[in-house]
Amino acid sequence: MVRLSAGGAVLERVARIRRGLVAALLGIVLLACVQPLCAATSHDCLIEPAETVELGTAAGGVLDRVFVRRGDRVKQGQPLATLDTRAELAAAALAHYRSELAGPTEQAQAKIEFSKRKFARRKDMAAEKLMSQQDSDDAEAELRQAQADLKVAKENREVARLEYQQAQAQLALRTVRSPFDGIVVDQMIWPGETVEPGATKHAILKLARLDPLRVRVVMPMQAFGQFEKGMAATIVSEIQPDKPYAARVSSVDPTIDAASGTFVVFLDLPNPKFDTPSGVKCRATFGSAHSGQRAGP
Question: Is the pTM for the entire model greater than 0.90?
Answer without folding.
Answer: no
